[in-house]
Amino acid sequence: MSSDDSTGPGGRRFETLAVTRGEEPDLDNGVGDVTSPIHLASTYAVDGIDTDTALEDLDPGADEFLYTRLSNPTRHAVEQRVAALEGGDRAMAFASGTSAVVATVMAAVEPGDRIVAFDDLYGGTNTMLKELFRDRLNVAVDFVDATDPAAVRAATTDDTALLWMETPTNPLLKLCDVEAMADIAREHGALLGVDNTFMGPYFQRPLELGADVVVHSTTKYINGHSDSLGGVAVTSDDEFAAEIGFLQQVGLGNVMAPFDAYMVLRGLKTLPLRMRQHEKNAAEVAAYLEAHEAVSAVHYPGLDSHPQHDLANEQMDGHGGVLSFELEGGLPAVERFVAALEEFTLAVSLGGVESLIEHPASMTHSPLPAEERAELGITDGLLRVSVGIEHPKDLVADLERGFAAMEEAGEASATDAGTAVSD
Ligand SMILES: *Cc1c(COP(=O)(O)O)cnc(C)c1O
């Protein structure tokens, strides 16, 4: 399903599903709310003693509710909506993106299995795979450069139960070819999971490219306003969905709270509008940075100079709102640049309507040893920005402030050096 030609449930298109799916007014309950109420009850009155229906056979779609951890109408609404937008049959909503990832990986592997993972994953997922799955649960993890399908093929064996990918990655915006990853997974009877947080379903739908499961940190673009923490896993594989659902409700008991489900339902209504503006602004910021002499590299899949620009155009419907760039002058330049900014807030996270900037070497990627950072290409001069939906001219003007502060400092130190020599 993409915005114009193809359709999802009920023959509706993306923009329509984003507004109404899961929240269809129900006049039978006597109120007909146009938006979903926030159902806070932890437990529900039932009709009578029923010895025929097993717990796992309760159907929230048929309004069968027993206890909120198992099912909740507000959470059910957001699960239906995200499933429709990702083009999947079932979605399970969690209290964080991290819990969506841990439940999904756990549902796919057993002790003794192997995982092949992109070597440029979200920091928390990287640490989870090493310190939980590898060190405690006896699941081997091979980290490979998945920009090269041959490297993934070489690392995948018949013991591999799961390929775990992100595309594009953080902070260097590397891509992997989802169709090629799906072929490799199928050759070995493994599952393919894709963390689609950076693009969101409006720009990329990995299930349509052959992935078995997609996860999101809804904390980012899906909620979109930096005011809710959550995650979701989506799949069309019934057996896999049942495993993930078991972990969500019983094995881990980790569910999205009703208030967050409401926030995400609200945020999703404007996802297409926000994503279009994020992309428009990111393209302007990327072009401005690429032309600047104090910038040695810009990483953004929408630029012709991105080494995987063609793949980006093939498998995504847009290029997103996150980019990173490298300043000449390393850490001292970065410090001056960031201190002068007024619009871009110095903060981790991404995907909200406001523009953020962060320094991976000292913030998101500081847990990695310096050599590992160097190997991955995360230098001290690298900055990552999540471009918001403000006026792009104000964003470019802000970056100009940063460059002006760098230049002033450069001139001052040149003057100092000049004075020192003439003395
Ligand atoms: C933020 C993020 C996560 C973790 O999500 P939380 O909601 O913070 O737990 C996982 N993957 C990616 C790509 C992210 O950006």
Structural write-up:
The chain has 423 residues and is of the alpha/beta class. 39% of the residues lie in helices and 14% in strands. It is built from 14 helices and 12 strands. The chain has helices at residues 14-20, 73-86, 97-108, 123-134, 149-155, 178-187, 200-203, 238-251, 258-268, 271-290, 309-315, 330-339, 370-376, 392-422; strands at residues 90-94, 114-118, 140-144, 160-166, 191-195, 213-217, 231-235, 295-299, 322-327, 345-346, 356-358, 382-386. The strands form 2 sheets. A 7-stranded mixed sheet has the order 1-7-6-5-4-2-3, sandwiched between helices. It has a 5-stranded mixed sheet with strand order 8-9-12-11-10. Strand 2 (114-118), helix 4 (123-134) and strand 3 form a beta-alpha-beta unit. Helix 3 runs parallel beside helix 4 (123-134). The N and C termini lie far apart (71 Å).
**Approximate shape:** globular
- Main β-sheet: number of strands, strand sense, barrel status? 7 strands, mixed
Number of E-type strands = 12
Helices, by number, come to 14
